[in-house]
Amino acid sequence: MTTFLLVSLLLLIPILFLLKRTKQSKRVPPGSLGIPIIGQSLGLLRAMRSNTAEKFIENRINKYGPISKLSLFGTPTVLIHGQAANKFIFANGGDNIVNQQTKSIRMILGDRNLMELSGKDHSRVRGALVSFLKPESLKQYVGKIDDEVRRHLQMHWEGKQQVKVLPLMKILTFNIICSLLFGLESGKQRDQFLSSFQAMIAGMWSVPINAPFTRYNRSLRASARIQNMLKEIVQQKKVERETNGASSRQDLISCLLSMVEDGKQVLTEKEIIHNATLVMVAGHDTSSVLITFIIRLLANEPSIYAAVLQEQEEIAKGKILGEPLTWEDLSKMKYTWRVAMETLRRFPPIFGGFRKAATDIEYNGYIIPKGWQIFWVTSMTHMDNSIFPEPSKFDPSRFENQASIPPYCFVPFGGGARICPGYEFAKVEILVAIHYLVTKFSWKLLSDNFFSRDPMPIPTQGLLIELCSRKLS
Questions:
Q1: pTM of the prediction?
Q2: What is the pLDDT of residues 54-104, one digit of tens each?
Q3: Which tens digit of pLDDT belongs to each residue from 286-313?
Q4: Which positions carry the signal peptide feature in this UniProt record (predicted)?
Q5: How would you classify the pairing of strands 373-377 and 75-80?
Q6: What is the CATH number of domain 35-469?
Q7: What residues contact 409, with CB distance under 8 A and at least 6 apart?
Q8: d(CA 117, CA 126)
Q9: N or C end of the chain: which has fewer CB within 10 A?
Q10: All structural domains of the chain with their residue ranges
Q11: How many angstroms from the chain centroid is the CA of residue 228?
């Protein structure tokens, strides 16, 4: 009997050792999930609004290491950062990591938008959007964007001594979106869209508690109004196509409605509405913020302003008075775009993003459990001294040869198969706007350089500037 117990014990030792080792190798990352539902959401949002979000992330890294667990916006989350983390996020084929935003974003934008889809659905919807947003298609819309920018400057900038840049840039990008993506001209319908749209985006990064008077509740109600308005536009476009044979290229919704395979529409009506809402948000916020921070930068960096002005004046001198910019003109704005890229590096509109683990995933010695969020942060590589020497210095020459920048280190538009499909659209918006701003005006800042994130960067007083009209020399 004693011998039997001894043998059993000797056999159990390696089994217990293996079980312990397996348990340790499959442990979740260190950290705390905090209070149920709320977790660390309020702490992150407070840090973003006080412009200390990077410090919030750095403190977690110093405390827990390169990977840690927390709870954000009602969901268990794993924070990862760095070049390897970016590659892990953007180069993953989709079997292990799938698109899924926070509950607040998913409920506000709709569950059939591109950021929620994976696999064949993602490829199908992305392909439909890219068919309208690719450079070959955008070439024919440069004149329309040019017209919107000039009309905006004439209405809101010319003759003014002071302006608040960010609110005006939001109006500009909203009008471009309404015109180009929805075929919606200025008037009552566009104005109704704007007020609901601003209420909708205010709660996209919020704790998803759907109670009266919460930011999340207000955004949900505004989202419902937006989607109802888009449904009406979709119905109008269907009627126009059936009765008048309207062009499929006149706007995004007409383009999406025209796509048919095997006698069936490529996108459902729900997918068209949800993705029109997504493009609306992406094109409105990111572009308006980037243009605002370029204006802020040019006020602080006279030598860079002078170089941008010189490039834009050369292009303007080659135009007949009143002649719109062309795709060829935009291709000459190389230095201006390098300034835009360096602005994106220093002040990325998107602080970070979310994915979801579709299965248990091993990463950096830990297990990210199935169903958990994965949170990555843009600025962790943008401000890494080993990637970008003197990262706090504004230096557009970093982008003279983008091939020299290590892959997955500069990610303001994402990367890999998940790179933002609206990248070229944003580029056209920004270059056209900067061309007319620098050739028509000079300016100086009347507010300090502080900004907060909500969740995108917002300068003090919306970036109040003093304007001075200038003439082409």
A1: 0.85
A2: 899 999 999 999 899 999 988 999 999 999 999 998 887 667 888 777 888
A3: 899 999 999 999 999 999 999 999 999 9
A4: 1-25
A5: parallel
A6: 1.10.630.10
A7: 83, 86, 381, 382, 384, 387, 388
A8: 9
A9: N
A10: 35-469
A11: 24
